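Example record

One chain of 158 residues, shown exactly as stored in the release files.
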Amino acid sequence: MHITSNLNLLVLILLIHLPVNGQVKSKSAIIDPTGSYKLNNKTVTKNGETYGYFGHVEVKLLQYSKIAINLYVCKGATSYNSGGFLDTLTYQNNTATYTTTEYDSTCRIILTFKKTGITIEQNQANLNNGCGFGHGVFTDGYYRKISSKVPVITDEQD
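Predicted structure tokens for this chain:
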């Protein structure tokens, strides 16, 4: 009788600690986003001009749920319109979201971190200069991690 009670207690403890899908999430599933990233996009250099999007991101984990981030992206020749931001964002479930109401209240840039890089998705109503970027500039794409070193994060606009 005593063994049955202990077994039932053990089963109850396991059921309480297992998520609904039966998988246990460990702390190792949280990715340290600290490092430097480069936009993984094809560019062509012709007569000294770079055609195609290029950019980079620097990220520093400040605490468990906060990151400092500097993002820069350029549309390339012929306009070289660009955009970016320097901010502190909430970091949760390997995701951070940048918003601004200064230029377009619908601006949302979602950064999803993986061990090898960041997938960035930008959404806004104003497709011309939403999020305060240059005409027609978007941050969308995959940014490959090129370094895990702690970057020096500075405002490139200064």
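Notes: The chain has one domain: 29-147.
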